[in-house]
Design goal:
Structural class: alpha/beta
Low-confidence stretches: none
Shape: globular
Helix content: 25-40%
Number of helices: 12
CATH topology of the largest domain: Rossmann fold
CATH superfamily of the largest domain: Glycogen Phosphorylase B
Order of helices and strands: HHEHEHHHEEEEHEHEHEEHHH
CATH class of the largest domain: Alpha Beta
Mean pLDDT: 90
Distance between the termini: 34 Å
Length: about 375
Amino acid sequence: MVEAYMARARSFIKEAARVRNLTSIHHDPDYVPHGPIYRNANAFHRSYLEMEKLFKIYVYQEGEPPMFHNGPCKSIYSSEGRFIHEVEKGKLYTTQDPDEALVYFLPFSVAMLVRYLYESESLKTDAIGRIVIDYIHVISGKYPYWNRSVGADHFMLSCHDWSIRVLCNANTSEGFNPAKDASFPEINLLKGEADIGGLPPSRRSILAFFAGHLHGYIRYLLLNEWKDKNDPDVQVYDQLPKGVSYMSKLKNSRFCLCPSGYEVASPRIVEAIYAECVPVLIPDGYVAPFSDVLNWKSFSVQIAVKDIPNIKEILMGISQRQYLRMQRRVKQVQRHFVVNPTPKRYDVFHMINHSIWLRRLNVHIQDFGVP
C-alpha cells in the first residue's frame, strides 16, 4: 500500500513538472511558490503538498539522552538539535506505527556523540563509530525494517563531517551523493532565536563583507588577499575592531562573503539570508541546501576559489538592477531557512523533511527545471 501511494505521488509530481510557469497553479492558503528562486515552482509545490499528506517518519525509541533523542539547540549545530527535538515531539510527520512509515529515523545526535566520545588529544573517533554500529545491531535485531532495505530508507542527521544522510557538511569530495544524501543548512543560533532583517538596499554602504578566523585554506586565501587592503568596499577581517557589531556589518552590506572553512558548510550563508544580504558562496565541492528545489543562481553569487583576488571586480560588475532582483529574491527565499519555535509550513523544518521525502521517492525535481 505504501509503495502504491508513493507511485501515485511520483506520477503527480512528474505531471506537475510539465507546467513551466514561474508560479505554481496549485491553490494554497499560506504560500504559493513562485518566481525564479525555484527550479520548478509547480513541481515543488505539488511535491510539498503530497508530502504533507503521505510522509511518515518512525523514530526508534531505543537509546537514552544525552546522545540519543537530544541535540544542541543554541549552537552552531542548532539545525541538528532543533530537528531532533521537533521530531521527538511527534506532532509533525511522525507515526507510532512503523509499518506505515516511509522512513526511519536513527535518533542520535552526532554533535552530542562528538561532545561525549570524541578523543580530541588523539583525534580518535573509534568510540563514535562503535556506538553507531551497536545501535544498528540493536534495531536490526529487534525490528525487520533495517534488514528489509539494508538501511536505504533510514536516515541520520549531522552537522559534522548508509542510508539517507542529511548533512550540513555536504562535500562531494568526501562522498556526499546528492541523489541519496540531503544537504541542510548550518544555522548558528547561539541566542536561540534568529535575527532577521536589514537595511534597505539604498542604505547599504558596504559592497562585500566577511569576518572570521583562519579556518581552512579558502579562508586563508581570502584573508591573505583582502584583510590588509583596508578597502572600504570589500571589508574582510579575521577579527572585528572593538565595538564593531558583526550583525550590523551584515545588515549594512550588499553582498556577504561565505567562504568554506575546514568543512564546506558555513553558517554565514543563512546569516546572510537572515540579514537580507546576497550570499557570495566561495566553496570547494559544496552542494547548497535544498538545491534540488531552489535555484541558487537566482539569489546568490558563486565565486571560484581561483577568483578570490577578483572579488571586487566581479561584484562591481553586477548591475544595480540585477542586484536589486537578487536581494528581493533573498527576502523571498528567507521563509525556507527560518527556524520557528513552532514550525510553520515551508520553513526550514519542513524543507529538511521535504529533502528526505524526495530521496525516499527517488524523484529529482532539479531534472524538471533550470540546469
